Amino acid sequence: MPVAPLSQKEIEERLAELPGWSFDGDRLSRSYRLGSHLAATALVVHIAQVQEELDHHSDLTLGYNTVSLTVTTHSAGGKVTEKDFALAERVEALAPAHGVG
Ligand SMILES: C[C@H](O)[C@H](O)[C@H]1CNC2=NC(N)=NC(=O)C2=N1
């Protein structure tokens, strides 16, 4: 289903509620530092489960003890939409259980 890109004002208002997330013009991004490689891997798996549930997927990068994600809506021409914020908010909600946030 098509989804409209958010305006700059909408993005700024939503970002104000998501400390740690940034907007680069086309994507939302955040990185997390974990206590170990396995902890970081577990966070990646948890995010992947949420992404499948939402049918919306970020680019996820697993480092030694870091997880970085960037998300944009491909079906909106690579712009930021409500779907990106919905994913970011779900990730923020699950991150504290992994020892970050
Ligand atoms: C068919 C499936 O619903 C689409 O390809 C979904 C899957 N995940 C997606 N993820 C993102 N980030 N953008 C999309 O447009 C998108 N589309």
UniProtKB/TrEMBL annotation:
- Source domain of life is Bacteria
Q: Which InterPro entries match?
A: PCD_sf, Pterin_deHydtase
Name the catalysed reactions.
(4aS,6R)-4a-hydroxy-L-erythro-5,6,7,8-tetrahydrobiopterin = (6R)-L-erythro-6,7-dihydrobiopterin + H2O
Per the record, the GO terms for biological process are:
tetrahydrobiopterin biosynthetic process
**Listed EC numbers:** 4.2.1.96
GO MF, any single term: 4-alpha-hydroxytetrahydrobiopterin dehydratase activity
* SUPFAM superfamilies, alphabetized: PCD-like
- Pfam families referenced in this protein's UniProt entry, alphabetically: Pterin_4a
Provide this UniProt record's keywords sorted from A to Z. Lyase
Similarity annotation: Belongs to the pterin-4-alpha-carbinolamine dehydratase family.
Q: Which PANTHER family match?
A: PTERIN-4-ALPHA-CARBINOLAMINE DEHYDRATASE (PTHR12599:SF0)
Protein name as it appears in the record: Putative pterin-4-alpha-carbinolamine dehydratase
